[in-house]
Specification:
single chain, alpha/beta, Rossmann fold, Methionyl-tRNA Fmet Formyltransferase, Chain A, domain 2, six-stranded antiparallel β-sheet, 8 helices
Length: about 325
Amino acid sequence: MRIVFAGTPQFARVALQALVDAGHEVVLVLTQPDRPAGRGMQLQASPVKQYAQGRGLALAQPRGLRQDGKYPEDARLAHDLLVAARADAMVVAAYGLILPQWVLDLPRHGCLNIHASLLPRWRGAAPIHRAIEAGDDETGVTIMHMDAGLDTGDMLLREALPIGPEDTTGHLHDELATLGAALIVRALKELEQGELQATPQPAEGVSYARKVEKAEGAIDWALPAATLMRRVHAFNPAPGAHTSHAGEMLKIWNCEIESDQRLSGKRCGEILYVNDRGIGVVCGAGSVLRLTTLQRAGGKRLPAAEFLRGHALTPGDVLGASSA
């Protein structure tokens, strides 16, 4: 099939590669403009752009697609490219721009979206983060026929993936990217054969995965340990859960719930013990969280035993949320 692909991050790059490997003719790739990144804030091409350039695929990076919007010249150029592409279908994965109706209507078979949740749960920008944060037992991928709403289109394929107690957003992201790539290849095959069935999303069970803000990474030790462990996992690798000690920010990358609790007279955020197994911190609801992987600003992620060799933490010290 003649495919237009729209996507930006690594999640999308995996799907684009799968489409190329499956023999589809990717006639045009749309991705976000280069963004500054890293310590030097140098402009960096998206993973999708890097792959497209490496394969010699036609590429465009419009700043907007609305012809009555902020970037009408970009939208007009994109319109001309999409019309000329004569695509059978458009595949969209974590693109980052809203598709106006003229884009949705252009491909012969419409626009298919790879969404990293079991719709209608977790529509929106951060479905993987929010599923872990909420303590969901499973997530998955839904291939959806796009409409003008926010992830409201009919479901075409849907496959679940369990969420384990130690799963982080980084780990699930990679598994879901692989699953999404396989499902979109299957969806296009069934579409070609006339076997793809559309199912409207149910009205029950709708939830929205709002974008994750950097400030959400600040740890509030008054929350129960189970809630904080889910947030540490949800915000790994970004934005990272963090606290502070002696005016220095500490990032927490892994942790466990401590069953041995000796909390009489202890404050939330107080360090209960320090040993090679980790740093026990008092949390809300009479619970304790054992920090097992930590990082100082500008340092490396380290297991607790190694971290403690270069950063003294003492029972009785109180950790506080950092605004950094």
